[in-house]
């Protein structure tokens, strides 16, 4: 996702000091654009989960900045960026991303901090990630092979290494050798210079010291002083380890619950939750996709929407907007409002469809199924609406949109009982309509 920054945000924090932006589908919804806009007013921008397995690009004054692991609040020179304890950190990627930003004149000095409780991703985790995908064969999940899953697996089994372990080199070396040994027992011998890696991480420890703090204390001090805090989600609800389409999910909590556990803040501190939803649906990798299209409309979404990943370059599967899935997403995350992105990609279609119900063998489903065997054989009921031919990229208010585009949005709001507050009509940050929220 590429967004262009050239103006300032207006009034995002007027009623809430803590705003959370979460992906509402299978990821790649365009969260970075809204985070970029709101982030221009934020004093703190924090990530709570995931690793360098997601990515987006922000353009500021003609300069392109690529983000994978670091919070995109770094584009605001007045904002402190936090990587919370729920994030898993690959230090080579961490420093590479810092170097790339600083080579473009974007200094992170005294503005970027990392939790001492965050777990570490090592190169052998990436090796194991690939070995596991091979082992699964046709049942492979389609991971980014960034080592995220194996790192979270070590965390869950209480054998992982955290940032603070780096600062006791002898203890780190002992634990690291044991960690690699256990992985080799599980997957067989793989080439990996353990002693060289230990030496490399000794050097990383010295470089890392200025960035490492107790982020829990920092976040609570920021809350106490009523700082404007933006919390940036990675991945999305349908990729959540518990609530997503398991096992075709990521290995962390991507929900509002993950915000609390990944940053160590209480639920009452959250002021507003914004769900980001694409005007159609996309998915990367395997797993059921009820509204997937294999026709010219699917190709239209993929080509016109430029649906391929920043991190992997993989093409995304495309389909119609699915409100059955979105109801489930909204129920879990409790969105106060939605950011509907890429509405402009629907321009030029004679008709547009929205999934409103599932049924199996003629029996309607009352909820989103946990069993992927059930999900893979649902029959989807669609509501079909007239499309619009107008170019909407210059629209700057809801009333500027064609009637049929407004009807599309109204149907989403009515079905979900959640207002659409932000409407993306193009790639630039100025290509965003802020719609007045009315009670639904």
From TrEMBL:
Cofactor dependence: Mg(2+)
Residues binding Mg(2+): 28, 55
Residues binding substrate: 310-316
Any one GO BP annotation for this protein: IMP metabolic process
Major subcellular site: cytoplasm
Keyword line: Cytoplasm, GTP-binding, Ligase, Magnesium, Metal-binding, Nucleotide-binding, Purine biosynthesis
Binding sites annotated in the UniProt record for GTP: 27-33, 55-57, 316, 342-344, 424-426
Bound cofactor: record note: Binds 1 Mg(2+) ion per subunit.
Reaction catalysis annotation: IMP + L-aspartate + GTP = N(6)-(1,2-dicarboxyethyl)-AMP + GDP + phosphate + 2 H(+)
Entry similarity comment: Belongs to the adenylosuccinate synthetase family.
Subunit structure: Homodimer.
The protein, known as: Adenylosuccinate synthetase
Organism field: Paraglomus brasilianum
């Amino acid at each position: 996702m590429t967004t262009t920054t050239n103006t300032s945000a207006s009034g995002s924090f007027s009623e809430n000091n803590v705003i959370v932006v979460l992906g509402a589908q299978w990821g790649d919804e365009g969260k970075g654009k809204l985070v970029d806009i709101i982030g221009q007013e934020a004093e703190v921008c924090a990530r709570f989960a995931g690793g360098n397995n997601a990515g987006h690009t922000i353009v500021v004054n003609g300069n392109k900045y690529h983000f994978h692991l670091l919070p995109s609040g770094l584009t605001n020179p007045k904002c402190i960026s936090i990587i919370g304890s729920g994030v898993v950190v690959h230090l080579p990627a961490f420093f590479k991303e810092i170097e790339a930003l600083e080579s473009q004149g974007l200094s992170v000095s005294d503005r970027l901090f990392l939790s001492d409780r965050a777990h570490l991703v090592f190169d052998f985790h990436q090796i194991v990630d690939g070995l596991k995908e091979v082992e699964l064969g046709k049942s492979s999940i389609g991971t980014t092979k960034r080592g995220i899953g194996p790192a979270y697996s070590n965390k869950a089994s209480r054998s992982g290494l955290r940032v603070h372990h780096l600062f006791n080199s002898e203890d780190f070396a002992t634990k690291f050798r044991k960690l690699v040994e256990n992985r080799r027992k599980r997957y067989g011998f793989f080439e990996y210079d353990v002693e060289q890696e230990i030496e490399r991480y000794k050097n990383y420890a010295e470089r890392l010291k200025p960035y490492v703090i107790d982020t829990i204390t920092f976040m609570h001090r920021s809350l106490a002083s009523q700082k404007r805090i933006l919390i940036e989600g990675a991945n999305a609800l349908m990729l959540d380890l518990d609530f997503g389409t398991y096992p075709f999910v990521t290995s962390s909590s991507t929900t509002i619950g993950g915000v609390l556990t990944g940053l160590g803040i209480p639920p009452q501190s959250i002021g507003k939750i914004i769900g980001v939803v694409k005007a159609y649906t996309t998915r990367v990798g395997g797993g059921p996709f009820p509204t997937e299209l294999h026709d010219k409309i699917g190709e239209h979404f993929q080509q016109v929407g430029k649906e391929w990943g920043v991190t992997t370059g993989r093409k995304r599967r495309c389909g119609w907007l699915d409100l059955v899935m979105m109801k489930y997403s909204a129920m879990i995350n409790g969105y106060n409002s939605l950011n509907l992105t890429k509405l402009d990609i629907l321009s030029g279609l004679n008709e547009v469809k929205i999934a409103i119900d599932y049924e199996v063998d003629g029996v309607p489903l009352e909820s989103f199924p946990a069993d992927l065997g059930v999900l893979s054989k649902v029959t989807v009921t669609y509501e079909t609406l007239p499309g619009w031919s107008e170019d909407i990229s210059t629209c700057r208010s809801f009333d500027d949109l064609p009637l049929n585009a407004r009807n599309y949005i109204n149907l989403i709001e009515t079905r979900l009982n959640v207002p659409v507050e932000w409407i993306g009509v193009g790639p630039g940050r100025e290509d965003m309509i802020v719609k007045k929220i009315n009670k639904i």
